[in-house]
Amino acid sequence: MFISFFLKNMKLYKQNIFGQALFLKRFLLTILGFISHRRYSSFNQLEIEGSEIIRNLPEQKVMFVSNHQTYFADVAAMLHVFNASLFGNKNNLKNVLKYLRKPKLNIYFVAATETMKTGFLPRIFAYTGAITVQRTWREKGKEIKRNVKPSDTDNIGLALNDGWVISFPQGTTKPYKPIRKGTGHIIKQYKPIVIPIVIDGFRRSFDKKGLFIKKKGILQSMVIKKPLDIDYENETVEEIVEKISFAIEQHPSFLSSYSQEALISAEKLNKKRDFWEY
Fold first, then answer.
1. 41-93 pLDDT, tens digit each
2. Kind and range of the H or E element at 131?
3. Lowest mean per-residue pLDDT among 11-20, 28-37, 179-188
4. CATH for 159
């Protein structure tokens, strides 16, 4: 406590917009990156498409929108892919010792407050870039209804103005759930470049939280798409939300491409995963 107070007041280290020490964030990203790398390059293989899009993005005001399959493994994979791409890798995670030496520090991800306070590891992950928000529709497994917390939206805006933000606009790891309108409001207000990402294989590879390997030998995939063409002034929130649902392949129309047997199997898996606690 004394050392932290001393360093802060002597201004011996740089902080980000949320008051986090950049040297500590860099250290955590590097260490956690080294530990998690084999999850996407050895135990399982991550197939990447679109890394060239990452290299052509500006430093600030970029929002990534993606479907969601685990609490933490999805974000960890994206941090690997983004940093490897910025290092010059083409759709691969080679040279991890090099691309994690100087990771991009102004990358943030939106996460539920209750998720990031469920244990020691989530609290550490939170320091690497979490923008914690209070869910308006669900808490502790129960359906609720409350107003959006203004400071949550403000924090996402601060993060966008500072760098890149990863968002999972469905707010759940269950597939084909509706996109939350809050994402549309934020896009209209802050006008970021919106990059859709579609992931697959993480639900089969990891437990619900994404902390433990459930099965090895799974082919994971991450497709990074071109920026969405959005008319920030004239398109409605509903139109933006629908555009996102198609882009991340979570619109209800995509369900028609699955057999009834596959859908029943997926729903059974989702119900089973609800009871998995680690």
1. 998 999 999 999 999 999 999 999 999 999 999 999 999 999 999 999 999 99
2. strand 130-133
3. 11-20
4. 3.40.1130
Domain-located, residue 113: yes
Listing DSSP states for 159-223 in one string gives HHHHSEEEE-TT-SSSTTPPPPHHHHHHHHHH--EEEEEEEESHHHHB-TTSSSB--SS-EEEEE
Q: Which residue has the tokens 């099965």?
A: 215
Chain position carrying tokens 């100087």: 102
Instruction: Give the whole-angstrom CA distance, residue 162 versus residue 55.
Output: 17
- Asked, for residue 160, whether it belongs to a domain, the answer is yes
Quote the domain boundaries for residue 157.
2-253
Query: In the chain, how many domains are there?
Result: 1
Residue with structure tokens 């994690």?
Answer: 100
Q: What is the mean pLDDT of the chain?
A: 86
Residue 194 lies in a domain: yes
Task: Identify the band that residue 267 occupies on the pLDDT scale cut at 50, 70 and 90.
Answer: low
Quote the Cα angle for 74-64-237, to 5°: 125
Q: Which residues, at least 6 apart from 60, have a Cβ–Cβ distance to it below 8 Å?
A: 106, 160, 161, 162, 163, 164
Q: Model's pTM, two decimal places?
A: 0.85
